[in-house]
Amino acid sequence: MILRIGARAESRLLGDVLRMAGNPPVRIVLEGGASAVPPGGEWRFTMRVRDRLTLLRMLADPEFGFGEEFSRGRVTVEGDLAALCREIYTAARRGRGPGWVAGLLSRWLRLTQAASPRGAWSNIHRHYDLPAEFYRLWLDSEMIYTSAWFPHSGATLEDAQRAKMERVCRKLALESGDRVVDAGCGWGALALYMARHYDARVRAFNLSHEQVEYARRRAAREGLAGQVEFVEDDYRNVGGRFDAFASIGMLEHVGAEHYPELARMLRRWLGESGRGLLHFIGRSRPEPLSPWIRRRIFPGAYVPALSEALRVLEQGDYAVMDVENLRSHYARTLACWLQRFEAAQAEAARMLDGELLRAWRLYLAGSQAAFQTGNLQLYQVLFAGRECRRRLWTREWAAREEESASRI
Amino acid sequence: MILRIGARAESRLLGDVLRMAGNPPVRIVLEGGASAVPPGGEWRFTMRVRDRLTLLRMLADPEFGFGEEFSRGRVTVEGDLAALCREIYTAARRGRGPGWVAGLLSRWLRLTQAASPRGAWSNIHRHYDLPAEFYRLWLDSEMIYTSAWFPHSGATLEDAQRAKMERVCRKLALESGDRVVDAGCGWGALALYMARHYDARVRAFNLSHEQVEYARRRAAREGLAGQVEFVEDDYRNVGGRFDAFASIGMLEHVGAEHYPELARMLRRWLGESGRGLLHFIGRSRPEPLSPWIRRRIFPGAYVPALSEALRVLEQGDYAVMDVENLRSHYARTLACWLQRFEAAQAEAARMLDGELLRAWRLYLAGSQAAFQTGNLQLYQVLFAGRECRRRLWTREWAAREEESASRI
Q: Is B319 among the domain residues?
């Protein structure tokens, strides 16, 4: 296919692209051809598009095209990628349509396919069964793949991940002997922390075989295998009665149509006397459901508005005791991850192909921008049943932050 | 009408009443007739029912009868009224049906009639236009008729109301010159506090003529009339553009069907750059709407689940930054009010008739019990628009509580 477009038409097309995106401060350059800058001529980033076909692909599917073409290396960016994403998010509010990256990332994180136990397994498998060595390149030493909580501006990522776990335990008012269910436990850091520092008995579950194996080995090595049981299964298959529930970063994978099932499981695990903490990525308002477009980063995910997530708790008559929006902490966590990821490009390239590597870099940069601009929120919701006798609601734990920080 | 019931049938009837209520530890005595105690024979309260007709009235309408008959003085209670309400709430979860007081109080606080501007006026008028002297008998010196926040166990009601106002200002990160809209301002304490301590310019509105007159006189007396404007009008009629919104205890009166209107007003007042705080009585789950039953305390009110209230914010794309459940603080506030109210019975009796006085006492005691048992929640929700540049979300204000406490 030979594309016959004159140079003037080409320039106009590039200008249209910028205008559709709300005129971010970006110079767009078609290799060996035309270029365009926003009206006023101010730009701080350069985006190079390999050829006309690439440009047309982006125009044909603006919500998806940029991510695809960037991942394939046919679009390159000069300048700070996260800062560019931020500009694109901000500009998109002025522009027509959702903008490229904004659209791409929101699609990545939208409800897309039913997370039935089988579907859930394949979704989780795809993302979390990447080799642990890959995540080790850019996560903290505890291998925690959720937002940290930075107790002060000088905290490292390692400090902040430990501070996050301590804070979760304090919010839950954990005590020695408490039985805890940890839903979606990743590589097991929080479950092991609860056992080690609070003498809790934890049943932690996860669909990722790689992660569960890793967590079991670590529990055995640290002498905690008697206190923490790692279960490789769907949350709907996990029995038992517990004093407390913790779930850090699982709700996004549950899918809104499965919230009633999660609510029933909560009642079964906690009854009226339990309490729990839900930590999840959220939005400032519900987004309409949309059909599945093939996704590479988070297949099957749905990011709920807070009101949607709270229905899980209201169905079980759990009262919300405390909510914190930690999106600025997640933006900083992602900045740490991206920095480490970029510093480890050579090692990462030995594990993933170039396309997936570029997609991952865009995902980290775009997510950082999304939390900075408020396109995404990060909620920690503390809740309690009617008969819960622990005093969770007075934020006494907040007053003890300093004490906590000294333990880090 | 002569009621012909034998003594055995009468005893059985009283036993049925206790069983329906879930067998609270209450001895029920029909004056000059039978009595009953719960199975097991343990009781800590005595409830005296004047006659058979009274008993039948309570049975005919268990959700409403107790409140009515108590108010009319035909049912009396020996022992701590709030503690009795607590027992009745707790027992009601075991019993059939909602229980008397629980049902009565939940009806009081349920959506009952449309709060159209005209309806809203007559509802508000009925409750808040009682003479200020009546409220002065049992409220704090600032005349604040919403939950206080107790910074420590030794705080007085006066301390705690000032601490609440300070905390609201800190959550909103108020700064000198900020334009604030205060929706449902009561006797004006918060608006005046914001002007006095934060140099804010406040437009505060309220439907109660009595309260607005009181607030204006106070503003003039304190030299703050140039900074605080008190408007006697419905929130739907108040124009202007503001940096921050505060509403303490108004949402309960808005009515769920008017949330979209409130959401539109918020957008008009705050745009994308503002932030706000909603303080309201809530529930742990939505209650079904119910038709209006004549009410004496809170006509027209609706107490939303948190998810319902959040729809007001999500409609305007405001992100929730922080939520606190302060129900234990409200229970303590109500205990203070009840204590002062009971100590001032003689003066109160010169202002209200006996029936309204008894109803008021039951309302204070029952509300205290409802917050203690988790039948009601008290939420403070902090939110911000996309373009809000204030750092609201890090709980820096929490770390400064001590400093705040020293100002009290």
A: yes
Which residues, including other chains, have CB under 8 Å from residue A60's CB and lie 6 or more apart? none
Residues of A in contact with B379 (CB under 8 A): 320
Structure tokens, B372: 């203690």
Nearest to B246 by CA among B276, B224, B267, B273: B276
- Assigned token pair, A244: 């407390």
Q: Answer yes or no: do A145 and A58 share one domain.
A: no
Q: Which two tokens stand for residue B14?
A: 């009283």
For residues B251 and B368, is the Cβ–Cβ distance under 8 A? no
B139 and B265 together in one domain: yes
Look-up: residue for tokens 């995404």? A376
Q: Which of A313, A320, A328 is nearest residue B393 as measured by Cβ atoms?
A: A328
CATH number of the domain enclosing B387: 3.40.50.150
Q: Are residues B138 and B214 in the same domain?
A: yes
Report how far apart, in Å, the C-alpha atoms of B369 and of each of A259, B48, B84, B210 are: 32, 21, 8, 30
- A332 closest CA partner among A148, A168, A162, A151: A148
- Structure-block tokens of residue B198: 């934060």
- Contact call for A311 and B307, based on CB within 8 A: yes
What Rg do the C-alpha atoms of chain A give, in angstroms? 23
As a whole number of angstroms, the distance between CA B133 and CA B217 comes to: 15
Q: Across the interface, do B321 and A325 touch by the CB < 8 Å criterion?
A: yes
**Taking the model in full, what pTM does it have?**
0.86
Residue after which a domain boundary falls, among A54, A69, A97: A97
Q: Angle formed by the axes of helices B62-71 and B52-60, to 10°?
A: 140
Lowest mean pLDDT among A87-96, A285-294, B188-197, B259-268: A285-294
Quick one: tokens of A303?
């990011």
- Give the Cα separation of B160 and B140 in Å (integer): 10
Q: Hey, what are B363's tokens? A: 């309302």
So what's the ipTM on this one? Answer: 0.85
Contacts of A22 in chain B (CB under 8 A): none
The CATH number of the domain where B48 resides is what?
A: 3.30.1050
Q: Which of A89, A167, A284 is most worth mutating to test chain B (most B CB atoms within 10 A of its CB)? A: A284
Two structure tokens written together for A117: 């136990």
Distance from CA of B386 to the nearest CA of A (A): 6
- Residue B107 is predicted with a pLDDT of 40
User: Residue A44: inside a domain, yes or no?
Assistant: yes
Nearest CA among A114, A116, A111, A115 for reference residue A288: A111
Q: Are residues B330 and B185 in the same domain?
A: yes
* Residue B324, strand partner residues: A322, B380
The partner residue sitting opposite A310, judged by closest CB among B307, B324, B391, is B307
Which residues have C-beta within 8 Å of that of residue A326, sequence separation ≥ 6?
A: A147, A149, A378, A379, A380, B393
Q: Which range marks the domain in which residue A393 is found?
A: 117-405
Task: Say whether both B237 and B131 belong to one domain.
Answer: yes
| Span B341-381, pLDDT tens digits | 999 999 999 988 888 888 889 888 988 988 998 888 999 99
Interface residue of B106, B320, B330, B397 to substitute, partner A, most A CBs within 10 Å: B320
Gap from B319 CA to chain A (nearest CA, Å): 5
User: What pLDDT is recorded for position A95?
Assistant: 64
C-alpha B304/C-alpha A386 separation (Å) is: 17
